[in-house]
Amino acid sequence: MKFSDNLEKWFAEAQGHYPTKRSPLVPFLLYVQDEVGYLSDEAIVEIANRVELTPLEVRNVISYYSMLRTKPIGKYNVQVCTNICCLQRGGEDIFEHCKKTLGIGHKQTTPDGLFSLEEVECIGACSWAPAVQVNYDFHENLTPETMDAVIESYRKREQQ
Amino acid sequence: MADLVSHPDEVKVISSRWGKGATDIDRYLELDGYKAVQKALTMTPDAIINEVKASNLRGRGGAGFPTGLKWSFVPKESAKPKYILCNGDESEPGTCKDRLIFEHDPHGVIEGAIIAGLAVGAKSAYIYLRGEYRYLSIIMQKAIADAYAKGFIGKNIFGSGKDFDVYWHGGAGAYEVGEESALMESLEGKRGIPRIRPPFPAVVGLWGGPTVINNAETLAAVPAILLMGGQKYADLGTPRNGGTRLFCLSGNLEKPGVYELPMGYNLKKMIYEVGGGIQGGRGLKAVVPGGSSTPVLTADEIDIAMDFDSVMKAGSMLGSGGVVVLDDRTCIVKFALRTIKFYQHESCGWCIPCREGTDWLKKTLTRFHAGGGIKKDIDNIKYLADNMLGRTFCPLGDAAAMPTIAFVEKFRKEFEDHLEGRPCPFAEHGTISQLPVLA
């Protein structure tokens, strides 16, 4: 399996930062996931070879971290925080609103493969609650109306 | 980019460069950047440690352990390399301060890490940043690259003959990894499960070498301490609680935000003046003073000084500085359920009291809140939490148990009302006062 030149460059450089081969495994997994979309069987075998672990050992690490996944999801992952600070400022309403707008539930993907929805734990936006993260973009101080605008902006991005 | 706020009572030490373009290294230099490292290079390791000891700086991650003392535990001689590990895996609900530190002052963290390295004889530092903060990792990596390009890190820093490397490392979503020994496991490419201690990281840490693990906020305070002097920094706070603190105000406030205030600032004043009072002029019900793991304070318990010792005396903890404000519409049972749901999700599963305890608490509170509770549940919830306390390898079990116990003890009446109000008396009307008074 081939990774992009950028990723190869990052990995080669990162390995020089640690005394053991497996040390950069966690960020490496995340970067591969960002490139491939998910950690496919093929990607796991390739990563395992690179860090000199068995694929099972790599899977053991993957299953621990909530951002890592072994199945594909939508192009835009809408992650709604409902933890205590967001809860106090309407995070649950935002989540319910997203369910209705997107027509899907927790950890589901729209039929066109564009959006996935996820209720997530604290994303570190407590003072700007309620907050949503779409892939790596933060959207904060949301209302159902501004949430609609957020979703619409990603739809528009696709049409361009 | 998160919004910045300000208040006249703020004392900007850590946040002094926020909003001033200090991510650019030249701008950082204009704002006294890297002066502290140059000063540290003229000092002996003991002199640096003594300055930090004099500052009364206590770890900003939550436990509040004296930083200078922690550094002094690192053995002078070591066969294995020593390391500095910056904990930027901020994930405690209610806490969002590290995000602003990395966003606005990445060089401040790098500088703090170099000074820590000079103090304990380490030659490299790892800055571990939570995976969700991708935009910050880009800022951080650029800052590191710029510092290398200027010769501030790498070989022969500032022509001193000393070498010091700084590396960035990203996580992938796990609250438990914020625990210091789990952080090391994760950095070594493993599941982030805590290690049994002793040995402590200062003696046996990363890859077996002595390691200092400090929170991002702790390291960010170090350059200012060296420049202004430990005593002057200490004087900003209260005895035994030196300096300032980044308080993350959130919940039902008019003006939530991250404010830098002196240690010992009054909590009531923080809520009503700095935070602009309760949203919509409503009543205050309770405050979680230091992140989700800290026991709740009722509205009449908030006239306290916000430093480690005073908050502990009041029966809670200053923790990570996340002040979460609950207005009078809040259903405490639901709030307790959401809190425990988090800990159940984040428990690493290694030890039984935490793995099973958080799961049973979640199940019981879910049923209870939905209207299926029985009177015995109230004591059972507390009994379960009591039996988790102090019985786990790492503090996550305590972090789940402590707030739960406080919710039941301080708001028992509300739990009892749920038995009569079924399913949740708050669900429709917003306030519990509309319930019939029960005998």
Automatic annotation (TrEMBL), chain A:
InterPro entries: NuoE-like, NuoE_dom, NuoE_N, Thioredoxin-like_sf. Binds 1 [2Fe-2S] cluster. It is an enzyme of class 1 (oxidoreductase). It comes from the Bacteria. [2Fe-2S] cluster binds at residues 81, 86, 122, 126. PANTHER family: NADH DEHYDROGENASE [UBIQUINONE] FLAVOPROTEIN 2, MITOCHONDRIAL, NADH DEHYDROGENASE UBIQUINONE FLAVOPROTEIN 2, MITOCHONDRIAL. NCBIfam families: nuoE_fam. This is NADH dehydrogenase subunit E. It comes from Koribacter versatilis (strain Ellin345).
Automatic annotation (TrEMBL), chain B:
Its cofactor is FMN; [4Fe-4S] cluster. Its EC number is 7.1.1.-. Residues 333-378 form the NADH-ubiquinone oxidoreductase 51kDa subunit iron-sulphur binding domain. The keyword Iron applies. Keywords: 4Fe-4S, Flavoprotein, FMN, Iron, Iron-sulfur, Metal-binding, NAD, Oxidoreductase, Quinone, Translocase. It catalyses: a quinone + NADH + 5 H(+)(in) = a quinol + NAD(+) + 4 H(+)(out). The keyword Translocase applies. GO terms for molecular function: 4 iron, 4 sulfur cluster binding; FMN binding; metal ion binding; NAD binding; NADH dehydrogenase (ubiquinone) activity; oxidoreductase activity; quinone binding. It is an enzyme of class 7 (translocase). NDH-1 shuttles electrons from NADH, via FMN and iron-sulfur (Fe-S) centers, to quinones in the respiratory chain. NCBIfam families: nuoF_fam, PRK13596.1. Belongs to the complex I 51 kDa subunit family. This is NADH-quinone oxidoreductase subunit F. It comes from Koribacter versatilis (strain Ellin345).
